[in-house]
Amino acid sequence: MIETYLSYLPSTKYYFDATKVLDFLNENKTNNDELPDMIFVDINMGIMSGVVFLHKYNKLRHRLVKKIDVYIMSSSIDPTDLALSKKYDFVLDYIIKPLNKVTLKKILEPQ
What we know:
The chain is α/β, with parallel strands linked by helices.
């Protein structure tokens, strides 16, 4: 989707296991060049849910040398899930899937 909709190709990493994301962030917490600019979190992930990830990330983020923008992406319209975007001040938005071109460009295109 990124390759199709954007005029440039950002560097991306994909993890399907949120524990690996937390490990990566912890290992690179002082390396500004390795830390991502943003993270997209799905509420319904295997191994570790997005809710647990957000809780653990909240504890870790203060030790990171870089501020990372976090977006929740989910097909859930459950009010409890939607409230997560307001619970954590580092979550910039709750995006209901499917992700579309307009939303993706708004988030990723340089201003």
